[in-house]
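Good morning C.,

I know you're traveling, so I'll keep this short. The sequence:
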Amino acid sequence: MESVTDRACAAALYADGDAGLDTGASLLAADPSADEELHRRGEEFVSRAWARGWQPSDVVRTVRRELDEPGGALVSALIAAETAGYGQLPPRWSDQLAMMPAPAPRNRPDRFTYASALLELYRLLLRLPVIEPVGPRPGASAAGAPYGPPAHGEPRMLTRIRALLAKAEATGFPEEAEALTTKAQELMARHSIDEALLAARTPGAGTPGAVRIGVDAPYESAKAVLLDSVASANRCRAVWNSDLGFTTVVGFEPDLEAVELLFTSLLVQGNAAMTKAEAEQRAGGRKRTKAFRQSFLLAYAQRLGSRLAADTARVTAAAGSEDSGAGGGSGALLPVLAARDVAVTDTAERMFPRTTTTRLRGATDAEGWNHGTAAADRARMGGSGPEIRR
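The tokens, ready to paste straight into the viewer:
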């Protein structure tokens, strides 16, 4: 015999329009005994998302984008319930779960409204496409073995980098922020080199992985350029999915951690600098415009990319000199880094065999471009619109 939940889902989930949602919500609102089955059905839909390559932060971000904050709270409750059944979760999942919005209470503000919102969420979950997995789903590692013990804490180097970037975000002096960010990038590059040399002495130690990072509106194309610049400077490859609002970054684990930290910090710094520049523009009698902000962020991203790449090159050259002076031979470091670059490129091309390179619309506001360049490092820079892999 068909249950109330079956009838409600059949009415609401497999047809467009509000009529089906209203019918399904009415059935559920009238029968409190259907509540548990309804929520178990939602947990099944969440589990299907894992099988399609999605992770908790991806699902929450997409639901918020499509259904706003209330939808995020609803899916957070389903994710918490579904993942509670696993003894151990894949790497990164615990951090993602800790960052989810507070779960929505059941049947608020009333049974009909709640059931309607839940069915709308289920409709979205069912239509999530298959995407490239960036790690194993719950249950087993990529090799099919149980996960190893979770790591406690983080390397001391990352703690220092995090502290430097926090100071850069907090300071009101651009020159100090630039110096702190430069020092953080130098430490990231040095950490990456140390990890590469250590891995080279340990047969079978690690392969490239991947992480998805949200790239949210507004001005998502400029933010994607910034993330691509940060990834390139830290020996990673980035591929932007504009339709789903995220970039997948491929690289070795220490480098992925560096990219996440630095990109988040630079977005904070860039937005603060843009707000200040807009205030100066308004004080001069000019209204702020979308073109100003877009041009500001594009200039900020492009110039920072050049500076970060130069920082990495400088640290790499110094490390190569130290390696040569220590008797390792001038060719000891560069082949290790080259091999890792090849491994990252191969992994990215296997994951994304059909990427395209899109030339983005260039900056159209000269004031925005000049202020964005100054915010990066007070240096003059021109050029046409950047390119990005999609």
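Safe travels,
E.
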